[in-house]
Amino acid sequence: MKLRSWIVSLLLGLLLWSGFMGSSSANPPVVDSPRLTIAASPSPNQSAAVLHVLNRLSFGARPGDVDRVTQMGIETYIQSQLSPSTIALDPNLTQQLSQLETLNMSPPELVRNYQPPQVGRGKLSQEAMRAARQKSRRVMQQALEAKLMRSVSSPRQLEEVMADFWYNHFNVFGGKGLTRVWTGAYEQQAIRPYALGRFRELLGATSRHPAMLFYLDNWQNTAPNSKGARGRFKGLNENYARELMELHTLGVNGGYTQQDVIALAKIFTGWGLQRAKGKQAGMQNGFYFDADRHDFSDKVFLGKTIKGSGMAEGEQALDMLARSPITARRISYQLAQYFVADRPPQTLVDKLSQQFQATDGDIRAVLNTLVHSAEFRDPKFYNAKFKTPYQYVISAMRATGVDATAMTSGKNLLALYGMLKQWGMAPYGCISPDGYKNTQEAWLNPDALLRRITFATALANGRFNQGNPVDTAQLTRTLGNNFSDRTKEVLNSSPAALQASLILGSPELMRR
Amino acid sequence: MNRRKFLYQAGLVSAGTIAALGTHGWVARTPAANGRNRLIVVFLRGAVDGLNVVVPYKDEAYYEARPTIAIPRPGESGGALDLTGGFGLHPALASLVPLWQQKSLAFVHACGSQDVSRSHFEAQDRMESGTGTRVAADGWMNRLLGLLPNHTPTHAVNLGESIPKSLMGKVSVANLPLGRVANAAVAIDRPQISAAFDRLYGGTDALSKAYQEGRQAREKLLADLNAEMMEASKGAPSPVNFASDTKKLARLMVRDPGIQLGFLALGGWDTHVNEGGSRGQLSNRLKPLGEGLATLAQELGPVYKDTAIVVMSEFGRTVKENGNGGTDHGHGNALWVMGGAVKGGQVYGQWNGLTESQLHEGRDLAVLTDYRDPIASLLQRHMGLSKAQLSKVFPGFTPQSNLALV
Predict the structure, then answer these.
(1) How far is B217 from chain A (nearest CA, A)?
(2) What pLDDT, in 10s, does the model give residues A2-32?
C-alpha cells in the first residue's frame, strides 16, 4: 500500500520522461553548422591507456579528465584514487550533500522521525497517513539523490565505484518494510567507509547493520527454547546465515553443508534490532544483541567447535569466513570480473587471491595488484566490459559535463530513477540478495540498446542541461577522441546536429 | 506422492469420482514443440483477492469471515454469477460469462506458489522465475521461448514499460509500451537518426546484432500498429484502457504468426483498505479486466482456438476481512485459464473448504495445486513440450496433477 503513491509519482515521472522524449526529438536545427570532423588522435596508444584506466577506475571520463590524467601520469592517478582521503572534496557536491539531512541519521533516528505508522492502527486520519508516507519517502529520495550526485561528480571516483560494487555484493533491497528508511544509512554507515579497507571489517559492519538484519530476517532469528522466544521470535531463521555463506563469502560451492547453515543460524540467534521502547542500550546504529534469544550451546561450524559464549561466536564465525581461501578466491573472481572481463583470466584471479590472503583481506592492496597486473593492462581487454544500465547512464552524464546538482533535483531525479527502473536496475532496487550482475549476458538485449539510444539522443539535445545541447567538440575531446574507424566514418558523414547523439549512443560508449 | 487427476465436482472430492480425462495426457500431441500455438500471460500484480473473484458461496465460513465484503449468493442482489459446484463469479466479471458458457474459460482454485513470504516483490520474483523458492536469473517464459522453434525478433512481445522477470533471459524479447505512448515516435524511428545508427551498429558483433534485432522488432510492431490505426481511424479515438491494450496485442498476434508469447501486467489489486464487495474498489478494477479479457478473446478471432491465456497473481488474500474493510496478504489464489482449446466450464483443483484447520497458518487459503501444474499442462498439451523440455522451463519441478486443461 505504501508503495502505491510512490509508484504513482514514478509513473508521473515516466510520463514526463516519455513525454519529453517525444518533444525532444522534434526538429533539429535546420542550419547546417560546420560539421565536426574527427581526425585521428595524435598518440592513440597513450590516449587509449588513459581512457582505459578512467573507464575502469571511475564511472567514466568527465571533461578535462583525460588531460589531467595524462599530465599527472597514470600511476599517480591510480595511487590517488586508491587513497581517497588524499583527494580534495568537491565543495559544491559537499554543500549539496549537506542539505540532505537524512543521510547522516542513525537507523533509530530514522525510524523515530520518518517511519510512517502501520496501516490501520487507527490513530491517524487518512490525510495524516498520507502526509506521513510522503515524509518517509523523503529518506529514499535523499539516498537516491546522494548516490547519483556522488557517482556523477565526486572526485573520489574509485571510492564510489567500490561503494557500488560492495553494495551489490552485500545487497539490501530498499523496498522491504523498514529498509525503505534504512537503505541510505546502510550504504553510508556499513559500506562506504569500508569500501577500500579490510574485508573483515566490511563484513562485520554489514552483519551488524539493522538494514541487513531486517532484510534477511535475522532480527527474528531466535533459539526456539530460549527465554525470549515468543510471538514472531519463535525459532531459527536461516535466511541470513545461508546468504552470509552463499553470497557474502564462500559461495554456493564453498563446501559448506546444511548442517553448517543451521549451526551458523544458531550462532547468529539474537543478532537483531534495538526495540523502540526498552531499556536495552543498543549500539548507536540500532543493532542489539539479545542474549535472551541466543542459543548458547556449543556448535560445530565448518568442522570447528565454536564454544557457546554469546555474541563473540558470531565474530568468530565471521573471522573464519573472511579468512577462508575459498572466500579469497571468490571475492578475487568477482573483482576480476568487475574490473577486467566477464570471464576473467584464471592467472589474474590466482594473483588477486594470493594477495587477498597475504594481506588478510586488504581491499586496497588487492586492487593495487589488480590495476598493475598484466591482465588489467592488456589492450585486448580494453572496452571489453558491456556497461550496466547504471554505468552507462552515469558515464553518459559525466561525459557531457552536466552539473551534477542540476541533474539530480526534482523531476530530473524522478525521470532518471524511473528510467533506471524501466531498464531493470533501479538503485537499491534489486529484490534478491545476490545483487545486480555486471556482465554482458545480463544486460545486453535489443530492447535495452534501443532504450539507451533514445536516452542518448535526449541527453545530447540538452534534456538534463536546461535544453542546451551538448557541445560536440568538447564531448569528443572528453572521450579522448578514441573512436573506431567505423564510428569515425559515420560521425564525419553525419549532420552536425546528430553527432553528439551518435557519440553518446555509440558502441564505444556502451562499453568500458 | 499421488499423481492424481484433480477435478472438483458438486462438493465431492474423491479419487473415485475423478473423471478419466487426460490420463494419457503425457503423450504429447505433437512430436516437437509447437511453432504455431500462442500463450498469453496476464499478471495481476498486487495479489488479487481470488476468494472474491471465484466465490465459494456454498461455504458458510466464507460469509462468517467476511461480514461486509463477501459477495452474496447467486440470485441475491449483487450476487455472484453461478459457475459450478458451489462457486460463483464476481458480478463485475459478467463480460466473461459467455466464455464460461462456451466452455473456454476455467479456474484452478487453491492454487499458487510455494513462496510464503507474503511479500509482493519476493513472491512475484519467485513466481516469474518459476524455480520454486529460489530465484533464477531468468524467467520461465524466456526459457520456454528458447525451446520454441523459429525464433524471430517478435517471437515474444511484452506490452508494458519494462520487460518482466518472466520474460528475462538469454532469448531476445520485443517490448511495446502501453497506451498512446506505444505509437509515439522516439528518436530511433526518425529516418535520419536511424540511418546513422544503423551504420554505427552495422557490424556482426554482439552489440550490432542486438541493435539490428531491436530495430527489426520495433519496425515490425510499429508497421503492424500503424496498419491497425489506419483501419480504425474512421471511428472516435479509442479509450486508453486495458481493453485497448489487449486489442492491440490481439491484432498484432493475428497479423504476425511469429508472435507466440505475449505478456501483460495489471496492477492495483492490493486491497488492504475498503475492498468493497459486489461494488467498490475491487469491483471497479475487475470490470475493465474482464472486459479486456473478453476483448482479447474476441479480437484474436480465428487465432483464439490456438491461444491459451493464463491470468495469475503472486498470492491471494486473507480469508477474513480486516478492520479496514479490506483483506491482507494471503497465500492460495485462483488461477484463470482461457482459450479456444481449453476445456473450460470447470473449476479445477482441490477444495477443502475454509474452516480454520484447513487454512494455511490458520488465516489463508492453502495452496493445494502448484501454479506450475496447470501451466505445465498447457506447455505440454498446447505448446507441445516434451517432459524433458518441461523440466528446462521449470527445473526441479515435477507436475503433481495431470490437469488436462487442453
Answers:
(1) 9
(2) 444 444 444 444 443 343 333 333 444 434 4
